[in-house]
Amino acid sequence: MKKNRQGSALLLVIFILATFMVLGAINAKIVYNYYASANAVLQREQAFHLAEAGLEKGKVELTHNPNWYTDLPYYLKDNVDWLVGYAVGQETQFGEGSFKIIREKDKNRLYSIGFKGKGMVVLKLKFSNFPFQSLEWKEL
Fold first, then answer.
1. Residue 6 — pLDDT band, cuts 50, 70, 90?
2. How far apart are CA 58 and CA 71, in angstroms?
3. In what order do the strands lie in the sheet with 119-128?
4. How would DSSP label each residue in 48-107?
5. Contact (Cβ atoms closer than 8 angstroms) between residue 115 and residue 98
6. What pTM was estimated for this model as a whole?
7. Which residues contact 83 (CB under 8 A, 6 or more apart)?
8. Nearest CA-CA partner of 104 in 139, 136, 57, 62
9. Between these two residues, 137 and 47, which has the higher pLDDT value?
């Protein structure tokens, strides 16, 4: 009779330890998900600010040379895949991130793409012809 109780106690201890291990693993997963989510938000915000810096650099280029452009006209308007992967633009490293600015020849729009880690933001600025004036700004 005494041996059965010792076996029961061992089983109870094993069950409690297994429960704590499962709860510990769940807690570790929750902490990791919060960390990964906060890091993704931070990288996206940093990419946004890099894209804004690119727009400012593009404005300076246009102010100094109204005929400045980086690529030939593309037939689709606001095609993010083309802008990111294929469009010719001025790429600038800035800190741990970068930005790429694109202006198509004879078009009144300027694009800026900010990159930071896995974060990426594409901004578009519509402007008037010389004298340069911003008309519309939006995120794609």
1. low
2. 13
3. 90-94, 97-103, 109-116, 119-128, 133-139
4. HHHHHHHHHHHHHHHHH-TT--SB---SSTT-HHHHHHT---EEEEETTEEEEEEEBTT-
5. yes
6. 0.84
7. 89, 102, 111, 113, 122, 140
8. 62
9. 47
